[in-house]
């Protein structure tokens, strides 16, 4: 009977110890759960903040990209206009050079004609008339040469201006395109 009583007491004490340990473990588990929930909430807050920051940065980068694309389009249109203008000026230069060649041929022809007429004239009356004609031809020749010089000067100035416009700030304008 004493052994049973002693065993019962022993069991009772062990049960109390186990129940105390169980209560401690439950309390510790509860604390760990609360701490885990707090950590999860903090992590969710941090993730939400990082997500919001990343979305804001993405929006800003998209706006910058749109701006840069618009700048590139504008610069491309300007480049196309400049190319078209250069092509026009080159074509005009070619035409003027062809006209210049024609004028030179005409001038040479007039010189030869003048020389032929000079040789054919024998009398002084004819010589005087031919001298007048020669002066007229020389005046016409000078006039044609001045006209040719002015045309070539004008074309040269237009080409210089177009090339200057084309080359001005060209490196800055195309950095965006290159990037």
UniProtKB/TrEMBL annotation:
InterPro entries from the UniProt entry: CEP128
Coiled coil start-end: 1-147
Gene Ontology CC terms: centriole; spindle pole
UniProt entry keywords in alphabetical sequence: Coiled coil
Domain of life: Eukaryota
Protein name, UniProt field: Centrosomal protein of 128 kDa
């Amino acid at each position: 009977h004493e052994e049973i009583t002693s065993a019962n007491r022993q069991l009772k004490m062990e049960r109390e110890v186990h129940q105390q340990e169980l209560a401690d473990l439950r309390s510790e588990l509860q604390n760990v759960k609360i701490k885990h929930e707090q950590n999860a909430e903090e992590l969710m807050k941090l993730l939400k903040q990082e997500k919001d920051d990343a979305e804001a940065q993405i929006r800003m980068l998209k706006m910058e990209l749109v701006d840069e694309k618009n700048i590139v389009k504008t610069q491309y249109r300007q480049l196309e206009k400049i190319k078209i203008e250069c092509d026009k000026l080159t074509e005009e230069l070619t035409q003027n050079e062809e006209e210049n060649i024609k004028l030179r041929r005409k001038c040479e022809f007039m010189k030869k004609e003048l020389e032929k007429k000079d040789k054919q004239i024998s009398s002084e009356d004819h010589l005087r008339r031919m001298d007048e004609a020669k002066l007229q031809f020389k005046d016409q020749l000078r006039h044609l040469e001045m006209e040719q010089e002015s045309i070539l000067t004008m074309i040269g100035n237009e080409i210089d201006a177009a090339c200057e416009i084309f080359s001005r700030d060209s490196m800055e304008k195309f950095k965006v395109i290159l990037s």
